[in-house]
Structures are given as structure tokens and as C-alpha cells.
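Before anything else, study the sequence and C-alpha cells given here and see whether the fold suits the sequence. Record follows:
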Amino acid sequence: MVDEGASQPLLGHPSPPACNDPTYRRLWRKIFSWQVLKIVLLGQLLSLFLCGTSVASQLLVDNYMVDTPVMQNFISYFLLSLLYTVWLAGRSGESGLLYILKNKWWKYLFLAVVDVEANYCLVKAFQYTTLTSVQLLDCVAIPALMVLSWFILRSRYKWIHYVAVGVCLLGVGTLVYTDVLSGRADGKGSDMLFGDFLVILGACLYAVSDLCQEYVVKKLSCVEFLAMLGLFGAFVSGIQLMALESAAVASIDWNWNVGLLYAGYALCLSGFYSVMTFVVLHSSATSVALGLLTSDIYSLLIGHFLFGYKFSGLYILSFIMIIVGFVLYNSVTMYTSGFLPGKSHEETEKNDTEEVEAPLESVTPLENVSRQLCTVIVDSAH
């Protein structure tokens, strides 16, 4: 005889739903989690900083005939050095300024050369090639960064990461197509082949610089990275300034407006580097690179009011596509497949699988940084 009461749920314990955790609900919770939202918002703050540097440079060229990108970058690096080197000087031991300069100076000199020349190559390319080529070829930095992260940082991606990157690049394609329709990308460069080469070289150098940044901020500290980048960046760009722009700087007709534009550029770029280290620490360099794809759209929007650029509804579509790809990329965690001490290959693979299938509260990049960092450090030690 069947007990009728046995089929009834106990008080306070409702019977489970037919579908405990539907796929759509899990995806919804991943995408709209607070961790992902923070990364997206900070990524757009970085895009606004980058937009600020573009607008300041354009105003200097158009209104005051000042074209000194090396000088502008030198001031930005010097500002970073002034702020973070003083901070680092207050530390002692292996995290102190003297120890770092004595034992790691050549590493940070290499990083500074890469970063300074990446900025210079991209700015210089505009003199030789078209805006369309710069926008398209600059995206080479993203696959280059993913490849470098795969081999050096041992980052491992899931299929949704590749889909997200594809969506972002499709958004960039829409942006370029709209530029062509509006005529903003018209005009032929004086030497397009050389200009395209500069764009690709600059994109690859950016990938190396971003990879080094991710390694340093996750293995060492954000303050050390910013202090050394500022110190050695000011040194390298200062030499380049004397060699390439000393005459241009001497001919500047200085006034308050020019000074404020220089200051605005320096504050935007130094703020960009400062916030970027925090975002990279809690996500990845590739994630940051994807978020920065929206900076051109912000520049177009501001340029519509300042420089009379034509603005199309397709720019909004491009922005939405990039944001959707950016959110998708950050909604699923990356993981590293390094081997921990005393564990076999099979055990490590099992741990990687368990990490991917972790509870929803720990599936975002913010929650798994510590585990990824541990793996990277162990791999580097071996």
C-alpha cells in the first residue's frame, strides 16, 4: 500500500523544479554577474582615456599645428615615473626600488623600448597609410596576444572565447565599412605598404607589451610595473625626443591652451596605464584589448561635435557588437594548464575540468585569478 503522505513535499521544503538549473539561466547569471559588469565598465573607462588622448592630439594638430607624439608620450611616462617611483622608493627588500633597479633593470628597459616603439609605430603609420588600414590591421594585436598567452602564460581558451573575439572583430569590420561609406576613410597614403607594415609591427609590439604587463602585475605587483614602465619609458622616449622632435618642440608657440592639451593628454595616458594594470590583474590582457576596440567609436562621437565627423547609426551597431563580444569573453573563465608540484598530467587535467565546471559564483575571471596566478608562478619556477 502506497503512503499518500510520502508523495507530498515536507513543509518548508518545496519539491525541486523539473529542471534544476536550465542552461539559459546559467548563461544569464554568468553574463550579468557583477564581476563581469565591473570588467566591462572598467574596460569602457580605458576606452574613454584612450579617446581623450586621440582628441587632445587632434586638437593640437588642427588648432595649433603641433605634431609631437614623442613629446606627449615622454610627459606621460615622466608623470607615471614621478608618481609610482616615489611610491616604490618607500619599499624595502626585493620589492624595493634599489633592488629592482639592480637586478631587473634590463628587463624593464626591454619592456619600455617595446611599449614606446609600439606607440610610435602606430602614430607614424597615419602619415603613410589610410585610416581603414590602421583600424583593420591594428586588430592583429588580438590574435597575436592570444597566441603569445597560449605559449608563454599557458592560457587556455574555450570555444566561447573564440566566438567572442569573432563578434568583436565583426564589430570592427562594421565600423570600418561605415567609415568607407561616410568618406571618413577616403584618401590614399603616400606609401601604403610601408604604412601597413608599421601598423602590423606596432600591433605585434603592443601584444608583447601587454603580455609582459599581464605577467608582471600578476606575478609581482602593479606598482612595480607602473614605476618601471614610467622610469624607463621616460628614458627611452627622452632619447627619441632629442633625436626626432627637438626642432619641432623648439618651434612650438606656447600658450595656456597648448599647455592644457599637453596636460590633458598626459593625464589621460597615465590614467589609462594605471587603470589598465588593475583590469589586467583581474581579467587578462586579451580581455582589455577587446574592450579597447570601442575607443574609436567614442572618438567618432566626440569628433562629431568637435571636428564635424559624420555619425551613422551603424556606429551604434558596431559598438553593440563589440560590447556583446566583450561581455561574452569575460563571462567564461580562462584557465592555465600548467602542472602543480607532485601532480600528474592526468590529475592536472582533472583539476582544469573541475575549475571550468565550478559553481556559478566562481566561473568569472575575477574569481579564478589566484588559481591561475599560482599555476603561472609554478610554471615559471620550473
